Amino acid sequence: MKTFLVSLFLSIATVCSSQSDWTIKPYVVVNDTVYEHLKLPVFIMDSVLYIRNSEGVVMTFPSWDVNYISKRCFYDRITEKEKNRLSRSVATGSYLSVASIAGGIAAIYDNYQAYLYYSKNMILQYYSAGGLVFGVALIVPSTVAIYHFIQRKRQTKMILEAKGLRFISNETPKPDTSPSSTTEY
Amino acid sequence: MKKCTFLFFFFFQLCLFAQQENTQNQRTSGSYVQFKNGSQISVLTPVVVCENSCYYISKLDRKCYREDLQNIDGFRRGTKVRWMTFEEFDRIGSKPLRGYFWGYVTFYPTGLGIFILSDLAKRKNIRKLYRNTRNSTN
Fold first, then answer.
1. Least confidently predicted of A9-13, A161-165, B97-101
2. So what's the ipTM on this one?
3. Which of A85, A107, B62, B67 could lock A135 by a disulfide, CB 3.0 to 4.6 Å apart?
4. Confidence of residue A185 (pLDDT cuts 50, 70, 90)
5. 10 Å Cβ neighbour count for A158?
6. What residue in A sits closest to B60 (Cα-Cα)?
7. Measured between CB atoms, which of B74, B83, B112 is closest to A167?
8. A158: Cβ–Cβ under 8 A, 6 or more apart, which residues?
9. In a 3-state reduction of DSSP, which class is residue A32?
10. In chain B, what residues touch A164 (CB-CB under 8 Å)?
C-alpha cells in the first residue's frame, strides 16, 4: 500500500511537471510567435513587454499582442509608482544588504560552534536554534533585496536599449568633438 | 594590532571617499556619450535619460548639455546612465539635498557613510543637470 502511494505520488508529480512549463526555458508567445530562451528579467511597463533574447537583443511588444508568458519568466509589471524606483541609487541598500548577509553568516557560524560545544556535553542542555533562525532571517531578505537591485539595473539597461541606445565596449574613446546640434547651458 | 587594523580600515575608507569626491570629475575616466555622427564626448556620471532627451555634464568644460535621443548612438559600457521619468527628475532636481549629517555620522567605523555620501554626490550632479536645463524640459 505504502509503495503504491509513493508510486502514485511520483507519477502525479512527473505528469504535473511535464504538463507545466517549469521544465522549459523562459519563453513568451506574442501574436502566435514563440520567443524562446529568453534572458531575465521579462517585464511590462507602460503597456509594453520588454524581453531580451539569447543573443542579447532587446525586443518590445505591445502588451495586448502578448498571448502567453511562461512561468519561468517571473514577469514583473512595473506600475507608475514603481517606475521611479528604477532611477534610484542602490549603493546604500547594497551596503546594508551585504552587511546583513555578513551578520547572518556570523550568527549561523556562532550558533554552529555553540551546537558543537553543547552536543559534546550531556549535562548542559542550553542549546537553542534561535541563532540559526536569526542568521537565516538576516540572509534571506538581504539576498532577495540584492537580486531585486540587480534586476532593477538590468531593467534600466533594457529600457535604454529599447530606445535605440547601445553600450559600446570600445576602450579607446575618440577625441572630444561637440556635435553641432547640442544645446549648451 | 587591533588598533592598527582599525586605523588602516579608516584610512582606506577615507581614501575611497576622497576618490569618490574627486571623481565626480575623474572617476568617470572613460565614460562617454557617442553621437550618431561618430563624435564622442567624455562625460561626468551620472548621465540622465529622461523622456526623449539625454542630459549630461561634459568633462571638458563642466557645462550641462541636453541632447535629443535620436542624435545619440550610445554610451561606453560602464557609464552610469539613469533612465528616469520627468516627475522623478523634477523631484530630485528641485528638492534640497539632505543626508550629509548621517553620511558623516556613519562614516566611521561602519563605512556606511561612504555610500550615503556617494549617493548624495550623484544626486548633486542630477540636481545641477535639472537646474541648468529645466527651461527646455518644461
1. A9-13
2. 0.73
3. A107
4. low
5. 22
6. A176
7. B74
8. A41, A43, A50, A52, A58
9. coil
10. 69-70
- Cell numbers given for A35: 520567443
Cell of B40: 564622442
Which of B32, B87, B119 lies nearest to residue A89, judging by beta carbons?
B119
Angle between helices B112-137 and A91-119 (to 10 degrees): 160
Residue-wise pLDDT for B7-61, tens only, equals 655 555 655 555 555 544 444 457 889 998 888 899 988 899 988 899 999 988 8
More confident: B13 or B72: B72
Per the CB < 8 Å rule, is A168 touching B75?
yes
CA angle at residue B123 from B120 to B127, to 5 degrees? 135
pLDDT surpasses 80 at A15: no
Q: Best interface-test mutation with A: which of B39, B54, B95 has the largest number of A CBs within 10 A?
A: B39
Residue A2 in contact with partner chain B when CB distance is under 8 A: no
Burial string for A159-179 (b: 16+ CB within 10 Å, else e) reads bbbbbebeebeeeebeeeeeb
Partner-chain contact B115 A92, CB within 8 Å: yes
Please state, rounded to an integer, the average pLDDT across all residues of chain A: 84
**pTM for the full predicted model:** 0.77
Name every chain B residue with its beta carbon within 8 A of the beta carbon of A176: 39-42, 58, 60
pLDDT computed for residue B11 by the predictor: 59
Nearest to A73 by CA among A24, A23, A27: A27
